[in-house]
Amino acid sequence: MRRTTIALLAALEATVAVLVGVGLALVPLMLLWAVHFGLAAPVDAFFRAAADAWLLGHGVDLVVRLDPATAASVGIAGADAPFTVGIALLGFALVTFLFGLRIGRRATATGTPIVGAVSSVAVTALLGAALAVFASAPAAQPVVWQAAVLPGVVMGGGVVAGVMVAFGRSGWATDAATSAVRDRLDSLPLVAWAGVRSAIRIGVGSAVGIVGVAAALLAVRVVADHPTIIGLYQALAAGVDGGIAITLVELALLPNLVLWAAAWLLGPGFALGEGTIVSPSVTLIGPVPGLPALGALPSDGAPLGVLWLALPVLLGFGGAVLVGRSKPERDDEPWWATLAVGLGSGVVAGLVMGVLAWGSGGAVGPGNLAVVGPDPLLVAGVAAASVGVGAVAGAFGARARARSRHVDGDEGPTRDPWWRSGPDGLRDDVDGDRPDADETGSRADRRTSPDEVETVEVEGVTRGGRGR
To answer: How far is CA 43 from the centre of its chain?
Structure first.
């Protein structure tokens, strides 16, 4: 397939991703326009609101200016001055990420993932900037430069994840850019490359495990507190159309709520306004935004809440044990390499959880509502420390288990030491370079018997040649 065709297909899929995201916000708004406002309100305001919601979902800040009458009716200090709404409705970002995942996998299947990645990211960035210009209004103005960067970053993250998944399943692509990256990685020492891969697997797996447990815990809380949530719906008296719109907003915020629950599991918790905190040890909240889903908040600190801190440690330990069992070629590595893998796993987990915590929080209004969500630095530090401790223990445990198995006689195939082995356990050359594929593939051929060698005389000189 030609590169121009690949670029056009990726651009088309990126355009569809943007249209789907904006459409998810536009449908409930158009329902409100038709049912609640009786088709009397200006329809362009609802299109701008849909674009604002999509941009906000990708982390783009909105500068809001309320008229005096509206600011007085809100009843929040600082509402009469311009304020920033910066909390991301991560449900929209998740849609874009999933489209990017699909684009990355499809582009890798064509053999030129770089072309598809650049095309999709560029189109998403251009459409984001165009939507920011279109949605600008005196009441709400998106930050244009953020709209030109952040949606493209989300799409790029999905594309990179899709490319890595495709590489793991079908191998590396063969285009020039990908081959250059692969050659660069192959030039790294085996112990360094294997250690980095193991640390990434353990760290990312532990972060995914934390988020998964948080999602399950949130589901249990919603089911247990559904009477309170239903009561808040009834207290709002928003009607059928308003109830649908509120539910869709909550669905867009669902990834945020899951990440807040993950911050709660780690210990730092999250805030719902300046001076508030929701954590396993203490819960101190004041007036909260009127979302029925927040009825699932715990009223006080959880009993034995400190026990939740053991979760990331156990996840790090289990991930290190599983990865250690799947990498028998690293059983003879030095102790400092095993320690580096464990500590690197903690760093990776901390980075992942810190970025997710940063993306899940932000300002939702003026005054105290400018601080909502977890502290990303605190979440990253706790995740790195807890996962790192568990991963170090698990890595050394797997190492000790493998060595004890060798002592008992179950040594398996003989391998060269880690510092003299290539990716397949073959001895490297004396100068430290790994053998080429052709060289390693012909090792067995070098043991050819003399009968299989023919001699060819060229101008009176006899030379040996490999028999065909």
So the answer is: 36
Length of the chain equals 468
List of E strands, 137-239: 140-142
For position 236, what pLDDT does the model report? 77
Cα gap 45→137, rounded to integer Å: 9
CB contact at 8 A, 104 and 116: yes
CA 414/CA 156 separation, integer angstroms: 43
pLDDT in tens, 69-101: 777 766 676 677 788 888 888 999 999 999 999
Name the amino acid, one letter, at 182. Answer: R
Contact 129, 152 (CB under 8 A): no
In this structure, what token pair is assigned to residue 445? Answer: 């051929």
Q: Which residues pair with 464 in a beta bridge?
A: 455
Residue 225 C-beta-side C-alpha neighbours within 13 Å: 18
Q: What is the DSSP letter of 421?
A: B
Please give the single-letter amino acid code of residue 162: G
Residue (of 165, 175, 170, 161) closest to 113 by Cα position:
175
CA 240-241-244 angle, 5° bins: 85
CA atoms of 291 and 69, how far apart (whole Å): 23
Give the integer Cα–Cα distance in Å for 375 and 446: 62
Mean pLDDT of 215-243: 83
User: How far apart are the C-alpha atoms of 267 and 381, rounded to whole Å?
Assistant: 11
Q: Which value, in Å, is the radius of gyration of the alpha carbons in the chain?
A: 28
Beta bridge partners of 461: 458
**What is the number of other CB atoms lying within 10 angstroms of the CB of residue 427?**
15
pLDDT at 445 over 50: no
| β-strands 140-142, 62-64 pairing | antiparallel
